[in-house]
Design goal:
heterodimer, A: mainly beta, four-stranded antiparallel sheet, B: mainly beta, 11 strands, globular
Chain lengths: ~110, ~120
């Protein structure tokens, strides 16, 4: 069945460092891809999404490009801030999985001042 | 606009007891999801409703878990009897409709501890 694999954490970076969180997927057909974020004490919220190959999703300085050839959707940010400390989840949704959202295991990110 | 409301926020019960969680989705959202998030793991879908019909309940342990969505609005998820391995955060989410690119909005979850 469909699945998402993302890099294990925790990831600890200094403020203003470059961030990459890797995500790869397995799916039949052409899924939509998402990054959700969970800030401490809050619920999951959508960070960005891409619905077709080569699309780039972006929000709050984060971006991710849908790469069909490598089945990847890596999350990047050029300069992280302390406020970016959170757990990040890569996810997909596809018709072959009845459009349900399938999540990766999450990557905890901590940013040092 | 009001978000997805869940209650209670926290619940501690003994094993073999029963428990119920409540969810009120965003107004007008046809699709409602219940997810189970065990510590250190990603959310796992338990059941998905489209209005008051079940779209997917393939990962719902039906011998102990049940869910309903009366009148296609509010939903309750029940566990009876609870086991230690049911300790998790139970997340409710809703979306306008069922589709691959549709954003789901999540509530803050109910943290269940079974002792």
């Amino acid at each position: 069945g469909d699945s998402v694999t993302q890099m294990e954490g925790p990831v600890t970076l200094s403020e203003e460092a470059f961030l990459t969180i890797n995500c790869t997927y397995t799916a039949t057909g052409y899924p939509s891809l998402f990054w959700y974020v969970q800030y401490p004490g809050e619920g999951l919220q959508l960070l960005l999404k891409a619905t077709k190959a080569d699309d780039k999703g972006s929000n709050k300085g984060f971006e991710a490009t849908y790469r069909k050839e490598t089945t990847s959707f890596h999350l990047e940010k050029g300069s992280v801030q302390v406020s970016d400390s959170a757990v990040y989840f890569c996810a997909l949704s596809s018709y072959s999985s009845a459009s349900k959202i399938i999540f990766g295991s999450g990557t905890r990110l901590s940013i040092r001042p | 606009e009001a978000g997805v409301a869940q209650s209670p926020r926290y619940k501690i019960i003994e094993k073999r007891q029963s428990v119920a969680f409540w969810c009120n989705p965003i107004s007008g959202h046809a699709t409602l999801y219940w997810y189970q998030q065990i510590l250190g793991q990603g959310p796992k879908l338990l059941i998905q409703f489209q209005n008051n019909g079940v779209v997917d309940d393939s990962q719902l342990p039906k011998d102990r878990f049940s869910a309903e969505r009366l009148k296609g609005v509010d939903s309750t998820l029940k566990i009876q009897p609870a086991k230690l391995e049911d300790s998790a955060v139970y997340l409710c989410a809703s979306s306008l409709y069922t589709g691959t690119g549709v954003e789901a909005f999540f509530g803050q979850g109910t943290r269940l501890t079974v002792v």
